[in-house]
Records
---
Amino acid sequence: MFRDAGHLPKLRDTPPDPTQLPRQRRGRTPQMHGRYPDYDVLENARHWDETTREVVLARVNEVPPVRFFAPEEAEVLRLFLDVALAQDAEPRIPVLEMVDARLFTGETDGYRYDDMPEDGETWRRLARQLRADGFDRLADREEYVRALHDGEHAWEGLNAERAWSVVMRYALSAFYSHPWAWNEIGFGGPAYPRGYMRMGVGDHRGREPHEGAEAFERDPVQDS
Amino acid sequence: MKGSRPPRDNRSAFLLDVHRRGIPGAARMRRYEDGDEVDLVIVGAGAGGGTLAQRLARKGWRIVILESGPFWDPDRDWVSDEAGQHKLYWTAPRVIGGGDPVELGKNNSGHGVGGSMIHYAGYAPRFHPSDFETNNRDGVGADWPVSYEELRPHYERVERELPVAGQDWPWGDPHAYPHAAHPISGAAEQARRGALAAGVDMRIGPVAIPNGTFGNRPHCIYRGFCLQACKVNAKASPFVTHLPDAIEHGVEVRADSHAVRIGFAGGRCTGVTYVRDGRERFQRAAAVCVSGYSIESPRLLLNSDGLANAADQVGRYLMVQGATQVAARFPDALRQYKGPPPEISSEQFYETDESRGFARGFSIQTVGPLPIDWAQHVLADGHWGHALREYMRDYNHWTTLGLLCELLPLAENRVTLAEEKDAHGMPVARFDYTQCDNDRANIAYGTKVLERIWEAAGAQDTLTIGRYAHLVGGCRMGFSPEDSVVDRDHRAWGIPNLFVCDGSVMPTQGAANPALTIMALASRLAERLSAGR
């Protein structure tokens, strides 16, 4: 099903509808769809070294409280992140909380463009802009985010391309650090101390027994 | 003897513990008092400082290394996880500007004992002989006051110490490596087939990971987390290749000690002021060596009342490499997260070819982005929302090649002090960077070559991210005080006991990853310093 590339967004008009993907049968993925329905990376957790296990499991089990953003900022940014990351149904990876925790502890990436404010301030300005534009009441939020990405909305005077990059860098770093996202994309996750033996091309030569097999079609009973 | 032939005069690999990853000797490391006038204080425990300390300690020098970051215990501090290793990077504030600003942090700046080599990919190519005389040969860049021939014995020595694995190398000064090439992953195999179909010769390596056990360093387990620090002790960095031997020979590596100013009186350096546990202290020393890399070394000199900056050269000619990556999609699963990201490379386009319309050239190398880096790659190609999630779900069908384009040294690409202060009250660095026309032409041409390779390989789709990699220059070595900061012996012009030993001294950067050359320069400097004593 995925040998051909017809599903890739650049080769078609609009991205395919993810609700037509296989439903997750083991573990969780964001929105419970994915390409590896019988793969749960967390089932391998007992093979990880202890310090890694603690850090990764805490990411799943302990959702941090919102401390950096004010409640009204958090509310509108959550709606924005749902669109920007296509998290349109439960279960959702708690990206807002994960971003908030980084901004609260000041864990930045170590640089700031000379024409940009501190990263936290960029986020706050986005929240103000979204609130001023009534983002929560918009019928087509996706269209609004597209315009934001294309630099058609003011970001309170910020360089739109850089502001988009700051916000999305935080959002994606949070989302793809989460084991549910690894289940969705079939990433092997932490690999110490076990490592890898099978490194070849294709499912036969390139997949360990504990790595997920790619689904080739939907399950006619469970996915209907 | 266990494993392959060890190097002479460096027992680091045997001083490690097979069952633990920290440096065993750290517990009984020699300590000096601030008031002791040591022979040398080095600022920065990375590729330059670590190698220099190991060499000189064996000649009896009493040395303190001040390191701003922590002394790692990999078993306890490091995790096999992309986000969890954020602590490896220099994330204290810095300001970037200019026409083509360079993003810093995780891509190019280390923090902690071992420096940036803790999170470098592991590629260890030599520079080509032409890199040392680009002005003479090609009329661009600058000539070095050190030749390739002078550096060659040190390249060979460091290659044995790391050690470097790879196929016989046909480019630059042709040479062989001490360890045989590693097996390559499906993702690299796919890239290699495409390159060969497009008429591009690729070789396996050169990678600073032993192929076999090496002393008490275990074999690589091919888990693919090289950029997140090697929890195995397989990938070479000063932490496993030089600091164990340095500590065994009396070097003190004083971590969590942030240098803020170099002491200076009567025409000579007197030591270094540093902050530890919130308190300012002063380590006395007969000589000072700055090894803080291309941003922090200039910053420290500029904050020391402009030491060595009489000709306004400190911080200038800072370089990065154009490191655009193009990923390609194939029908079979490739799982590009497996195996060390550094696998195969080509230096076929390294030298100037006038028919291309620009001077100098580029290298091509595999990279193996983990999910967060892959997401940045997809984002950079312009995707978000459902399109981004779809490309992310397709992760296992992709493989990625990257460029290292030689960008030219320009005086206005420089580090200065910003008005903003860091947590120690020290002005933060500001780094301005703008490409020249030759740089743009080089990157554009290289990107086309990558696209040609993927077309020849039969790729179904491609995704592109424009980016930079590596830092060199900022305190360059030269022939006169008017056009450089240090002389051919890394000595600051006019200050007999101040040295700079790191990537910042390089006048050009070639299209090679800089780590091996930084170590080779440190090895050469140590030889000259100990001969002169």
---
Amino acid sequence: MPELAPELGAEFSGPDESGHFGPYGGVFVGETLVRAVTELAEAYASLSAKPAFWREFDADLADYVGRPSPLYLAERLSEAWGGARIWLKREDLNHTGAHKVNNTIGQALLAKYMGKTRLIAETGAGQHGVASATVAARMGLECHVYMGAEDIVRQAPNVYRMKLLGARVLAVESGSRTLKDAMNEALRDWATHVDDTYYIIGTVAGPHPYPRMVRDFQSVIGREARRQFLERTGALPDALVACVGGGSNAIGLFHPFLGDRDVAMYGVEAAGRGLDTTDHAAPLCAGRPGVLHGNRTYLMTDEHGQILDTHSVSAGLDYPGVGPEHAWLKDLERVRYVGATDTEALEAFHRLTRLEGIIPALESSHALARAGRLAAEMKREQNLLVNLSGRGDKDIEAVARLEGADFGTAR
Amino acid sequence: MSRIAPCAARAREQGRGLLIPYLVAGDPDDDTTLALMQELVARGADMIELGVPFSDPSSDGPAIQRGVERALAGGATLAGVLALVRRFRERDGQTPVILMGYLNPIEIMGYGEFTAGCARAGIDGVLVVDMPPGEAGDLPALLAGRDIDRIFLVSPTTTPGRAREIIEYTSGYLYYVSLKGVTGAALEDRESVAENIAGLRELTDLPIVIGFGIRDEETALAMNALGDGVIIGSALVEKIEALPPGATGRPEAMGEAAELIGRLRRALDRDTFHGGHLSGNHDGKRVS
């Protein structure tokens, strides 16, 4: 736990007992699921009060995931952008290649203690699906992953990884055939198999207690980063930057720093083809509050309350909602939410690859793109910490396709 | 008072089960829905539940999802559903109409504008699937202020303590979800329905109607024997899906959809005649 972090003010101490962050969050689910989410909230409250639970979590993160993940000073990238020093929190080096596994390790422990034998998950880019299939394999649990038919095409390598790990990947053909529809289908599955099934939500959204629980598991990112930064530089970074789809890697980095008022924070949404078009996935920048998937939060919704189709080059950010704590942090003006376009993200993807020898996930490339612009406006002695939430191996085929390169001989 | 309580009281007096068809409003277009509403009433429907189309119907099974997609493709909106009910009311001032849907369209319209619109249209009850009473904010009070009933769901997973809380918020009728799952799934555990309804009878005098998984005479009779009536949704929406092109808006072309409701009406009425409904539950178990 973060010995050095200041106490959080009351405004940042959410959620309240009923799962609300100010007006956001809550439990907006059909009656069949109310008991399941209530039992989950009770189980989490009870287990998370036990130091032994966190010892087991920490041990798994150390021995299985490979934590702590390094803090890396990207000197050539900093030089190229000509401003603040860029530091990368290397979540891409985790087992399975992204921050997602921090959460699935925690929720799998919870499933085990609750006696559930069947795991279900939704996935967009496939990273959360892979992280779920991974913990299911390790614990000998049945695993079913719902994935939009559209995303199955975009992320074929991850689909095969999940199958290798023994999971069943179920193609979702309804609605826009992407992440939001996969989540609808997972909720339907949960209502149908509510007695023996544990639903591992992959982000800080959904009904209470998910936004809080997933945040707690992902906060290991910010706790480590804060300690590492103090050890390396004797001070805190001037600003944090992370991409926001549902927002789990961002909240994981931000949360332990919320009380550090001098640390600025930027959440970067997928601006797609531009925030002035309708082809983006940026509810905090260009949406409005509404209710979807169990919580009240900012959404991409039309004037009739229908959820809009979103667009992003990155499947992991292609979601019309966002975690309710982000909605609250936006209203409190503690975090600034901004966008990076597909083109900007792709540029940043190549920059990091060529200058530092690190291929970033397209999701994380959005954070990098914005970090570049911020860094250029900052002084050379200032420090910018970017969450490199995942590695880009899963994306190279998509990048080759987008840029018209022949995959076999790309560039 | 809305039209629901008098309608339920009449049925209770006559000892007949309530028959409540569910249609997705605007599936595949408003004229078809309007023609069907009128035709279903003519075939013996006591009330009509109208589904408000929402892009992400996460409590609904495939049949209703497809109905919703057809309605949205035809441009259905919440405001359009209210206008549709106004048209229905021009010719039918008596049959209760209940809106069933998800919260986001109501949230975006605004609770005040929504309840005013419902009152103008002649809506009798509102059921918001993903809004448990604890998250309802001032919507129940706004609806009550307009004499519109607040319908909530009780499911096989609802604990007795929670059922008490839900009943406090509920007026009109209590909607009992017959199974663990989504609309249109298979009805398997009938014994648990019987037990749970008996438990609910101890807690309330509200009519209890049963829905999810009722598709034919057999399931309708079995469930009607336990409750005060049945809601039939997915099976009806499947018939609408199968309507031939060109049938839209023509009552005489509503064939199988209308016939399904007619058959169920006759079955429930035969049941009344033979005393099955009356002797099956009601008066013996109701706490006065």
